[in-house]
Records
---
Amino acid sequence: MIKPRYIFLAIASCFIVSLSSCNGGTQTTENTQPPAITQTTETVTHSGHSSKAKININTAILSELDKFEAKLGVPALSNKIQANRPYGSPEDLVSKKVITQEQFDQIKDLVSVQEVELTGEAKDVDYMTKMGLMKGHLFVAKELLDKNQPKQAEPHIGHPVEEIYIDVEDQLNERQVKEFKTTLVSLQDLVKSSPKSAKVNTDFTASEQSVDGAIAALPEAQRTKPGFVLQVVNGLLDAANSEYGAAIANGKVAEAIEYQDSRGFVIYADELYKGIGTQVSQSNPEAHKAIETSFTELKKVWPSVIPPSQPVKTPPEVTQLIKTIELNSQKVIDQSSTQAQS
């Protein structure tokens, strides 16, 4: 059973507040939220370069909390963290007996109870990444429906509604995107009640077109700019890495849903990169070659939407491929930024 995921998407390293690594300011305000938790909202107006994303344990979705589950090797930890909300401080993970002090010491640098308010390009990257996550979910749902596996497809149709839509709804309204939550919910209900109905394909197409329409709310020039797209790619790969780490246990694919989620995110990230690959190859051929080669190897990890009996690669091996893409992406992003300033 998929639990509702109270939404916050901590997108990759490109959004993390890093006061020392970037120019640009952050503004801090305090507000009190029940029950008596003081949270800090940091307004991010630029892209940070910190490699460690702090995860807000009060609002993060399960795919973000999966980073802790994968790192500590504690089954169902993501759900346990969610069930014990709210937290007044990161240390509450220990005082509420969610994890031990020893386990907390391993992740304490990644834990936060702060909200991050994104502005400027960072907000646009966050928006596009959330749309990309929706695309990834729907991609694997369609694969499973085509294989006559509606029960397996159900959670992936539900994820865009349960995980993402609420979190991005304000941005959709700001960008004057027509409401499409109803379309997603209708598809989810239809697959549950009448998976063999001919209307499934019609509703599925409508859902995909709705997400594509939301993506089109961003200017085309921005959606085709390598520096922008690579930040989105990194966000999708970061989410895929977390999901894959949570999917593998004891040398086997223990969680099919997480395996499938990670597959969808990687496939869409690769699709986005192909759209800018020619531009990157011209501006930085070395980085392009490294990214392209790593994507080729990365996609082999998911030979099918149905998990293999044995994982093709271990989570550390997947992490290394993703790090290679992210490091080379950052070279292109930094190069683009330097050229824009000169």
---
Amino acid sequence: MPIALCTTSHSPLIGLHDPEPGVRAEVDEVLGRARAFVAEFDPDLVVLFAPDHYNGFLYDLMPPFCIGAAATSVGDYGLPAGPLDVDRDAALGIARSVLRAGIDVAVSEDMQVDHGVVQPLTFLFPALTAVPVVPVFINCVADPLGPAVRARLLGGAVGDALRGTERRVLVVGSGGLSHDPPVPRLSEAPPEVVERLKHGRNPSREQRARRESGTVAAAREFTQGRGGFRPLNPEWDALVLRSLAAGDFAAVDEQPNEWFVKEGGHSAHEVRTWIAAYAALASQGHYEVLSTYYRAIPEWFAGFATTTAVPR
């Protein structure tokens, strides 16, 4: 089975609160090279590991993992809305294989996805539905969280499920690295926010606009050194990138959950999507990283990175 990998940070602030033009141009060039890498590989299936930000998955029912057999973009932050081209047969086949491997994973026939899924697709393809996709949700923000090593086991099981196919599969990990944006936490939230975290699916246009403008305002505060958010941590980001490139998963995913928050911020748990993607690639044998880009971009609340890799 031909397989390739691309992992990338995402940020809903791209285009809404950009860094200075030279940095934006640099990132655009990197993403352009990643797009060219994907075009040359020419996948006919994308398996995309991604988080959610209380748009599709809420506390009314919060699975640790979920595979989408059908999915629709909610269109947050001005991104494309509407159905994704989900390969239902592939999704259900992967789910059955993963369950046989002993990894408990939910299945959704009506998954709602946000920028965590949609942005990498817009980075890498000319249209949201350019290539059939299987979205794999990993809970990265809602406590309680299982240990990060579970993401590696999930990714390895997904990779094993793919091994028999003759399709050209691009594995994508979306999220991270260090960042601590204003994502609410249930234990600290006022009652009205608690209600939204439980039942706030499908907000009105006005409600979504208020939430998104609040994120932009928080990014302005963060860029100016205010707001009490945890700083980006390029040293920790480098450790994550170095460890995954070397296949040294244990250096990252065998750490306690508190370590991720201390080193990278509350949303640093999104590196679980990278762990899963690299584990899926590693299930095919040794691999090599072809490209790595990193820059701390406070305007996007992100230690922003993009990598590509292939089997060795």
---
Amino acid sequence: MKKIISFLGISILGGVLTLGGYKLLFESPIVLENPTNSSLQVVETVFSPTNKTLNAAEMATDFTVAAEKTIHAVVHVKNTSIRTQQTRRDLFFGLGNGERKYEQVGTGSGVIISADGYVVTNNHVIDGATELEITLNNKKKYQAELIGRDVANDIALLKIEADTKLSYIPFANSDAIKIGEWVLAVGNPYNLTSTVTAGIVSAKGRDLKGNRNIESFIQTDAAVNPGNSGGALVNARGELIGINTAISSKTGSFIGYSFAVPSNIAKKIINDILEFGVVQEAILGITVDPNYPEEGVKVVGIIAQTDNLGMGELKSGDIIKKINEVKISKFSELKGQLTAKRPGDSVKVTIERAEKRFVKTVILTKKVAPILATALGWELKDLSMDEMYNREIKVGVKIVRDRKYGLQNYIITKINGQEVENAQEAAVRLNELATSSYANNIIELLNLEGERERIRF
């Protein structure tokens, strides 16, 4: 029994020695590294990162370059006007004529757009000014001349004469900006000069409820306050994409949204002022359905008072989906595209007609000023050759609008026995008759059934 136990003990001891020798001679030691020494950077956040290889430049947006490019090209605009006020003391005690003149000062911002001193701002910033003063970012002051303005789109162009070339901001294509893109607002809010705020493009083609003049704003959440009006809205490259114009606020201060006239519209207005002295308004020559509930703009009819440069491409019932390559979802977007064009420009209009898509090339036209016989409340129009042929007449003028007598679409053939050959002549004669002392004027007309009628006044 003792021999068996001894043998078993020797066997176990031999096995242990053999295993230990193997471990010592043939296996390398295992080294454990401290995980806290890893080169992986840890960023505290409430979100789980989806890409762990982002570098610092990709994780942060740097606006310093855009700010440096633009801050010296945005100016302070001072508007001085002379107002008259009635004074009771002078009126009652005879110490004067009952009036007191006083100076009123308003301020805003402007953007230098050329090295020779052209400055764009809002019309409401300079409205009523008797004197305009521009202050640069380096504190230099200059008197400014008003070159021209567009009240409808709230844009004005000024000029200063500087002794050196000025920093300016180049125009960018405002159609190319995207919702969510970073932008900077540069201006002088509350007379705090050279102020830069950042935000994103919140919407495009924004129409403000109740504002009938400006129809197509860029909406941002960059902070804009009183004094920012006329300042620059720029992209991350420091290029001009809009002129800051309005805020949506119940308090008069910024509460989240601001609005800018797109640079394409501002640039076109400036070019028109410089070339023609007035803004050239381009239209498609159509009427639209303002209550169309789907995407696009529905054509209702063709306006007769245009200069007839190819309106036959569009028809009633067409749904406009694009102008050139720009998507049109609502009327304000269509208006914005047309405001940036001139009469005579051609555009490619993508339409839906009978559930099919077509691309029509249309030459933009301008609305012809209406011819009015104001005394009678009539708007007149020359007859086309087809209308005269169908009515079997050689002369005549159509009443296209009648606010008093219900004679719309009647044809005037004679006034006091004399034939009328064109609308302009008829309007002059009717306005003269309305102011004359003669009380037995006779106008001969064709009614809607082609029957001859006479009216006396």
---
Amino acid sequence: MTTDREYDDSPVGEPQHVVLGQLTSPYGTKGWLKVYSYTSPMDGILDYSQWLLRQGESIAAWRVVEGRRQGKGLVACLDGVNRREQAEQLAGAEILLPTESLPALASGEYYWYQLEGLEVITREGVALGRVDYLLETGANDVLVVKNPGGTERLLPFLPEQVVIDVDLNAKRMTVDWDPDF
């Protein structure tokens, strides 16, 4: 990696980057890499012509030359990575995208990273904890809400049924949920 590709990732307010996936291992002998994608659909990660790769504290920009489905996964070729040895050096890197590069969403739609960390309260004002992470189940996404004691609750992300209000500015989500459940 060259220094002209370095980026500053100092945390100020909203996250500057969102993690889209990870390079897992080399694929073949010509520098291709296997890609584990967190996007939905899986190959949506290939829509971005440039990825930021984070290895430890270092973040560097890499141009995606080509990418495709391979079996049940994805593989990609990055500019300047032409040998397996070069690909091995990038294995394990997280694939980031600047948050400002994400497509705008319709009203009432959210990226998962926006929901993580929100305080979750019931309509009655009972604090349930904070959104730790989300799970994709097929039927609907599930919020994993963790309270300070470490107890986890699984709440279906069902707008207007369970999730009554999301206030990103106040970092709060109001839910219709029995605190004893």
